[in-house]
Amino acid sequence: MRGVVAAPHPYDIDVGADEAEGLRAALPSLLRRRGAIVNVSSNGARIPHAGPIAYTTAKAALTAFGKALVEEFGPRGVRVNTVSPGPVRTAMWEDPNGYGAELAASMGLEREQLVAGLPAAMGMTTGRLVEPAEVGALIAYLASPLASSITGADHLIDGGAVKTA
């Protein structure tokens, strides 16, 4: 049984205590240095779908957490942004024992078939998965002084899957 009442799944995540404790520890330095926080969420926070439910729900909470942080600490000089990737070429999709393989098996497909068809199925106009280096470059930019006027935003990096105005 899957979903909100099912037993924990390896791709379920626990967002809350660890992030709050890390922020609490870093906050004095962030305030003193007028630093930047970059949360990594998911485009799944914006796209309701069947699963993994705990993962997408936690990511939606993390996105909302970033919005609350910028309201509280933005006036004190701390920038807060969120990066929301779509499917990234990581072990989640590439590992023969990962989530992609599990999802493919549930659909009667080979993992390679699922991954090859994922960009089209998700409406990714780039026609390919996002590369990890692309996500890393966006995070590095948002944390840098070059982005000193960018704050309070959720930056999609999903190959055009989520259509926004």
Outline? elongated
Task: Estimate the mean pLDDT confidence.
Answer: 88
Instruction: Give the oligomeric state.
Output: single chain
Domain module count: 1
- The total strand number stands at 3
CATH architecture: 3-Layer(aba) Sandwich
Largest sheet: 3 strands, parallel
Helix content: 40-55%
**CATH topology category name:** Rossmann fold
Q: N-to-C SSE series?
A: HEHEHHHHE
Which class in CATH terms?
Answer: Alpha Beta
Helical stretch count? 6
Q: Structural class of the secondary structure composition?
A: mainly alpha
What fraction of the residues are assigned to beta strands by DSSP?
Answer: 5-15%
Report, as a whole number of angstroms, the end-to-end distance.
37 Å
CATH superfamily: NAD(P)-binding Rossmann-like Domain
Low-confidence stretches at least 5 residues in length (pLDDT < 50)? 1-7
Radius of gyration: 17 Å
Keywords: Oxidoreductase
Protein name: NAD(P)-dependent dehydrogenase (Short-subunit alcohol dehydrogenase family)
Family: Belongs to the short-chain dehydrogenases/reductases (SDR) family.
Pfam families: adh_short_C2
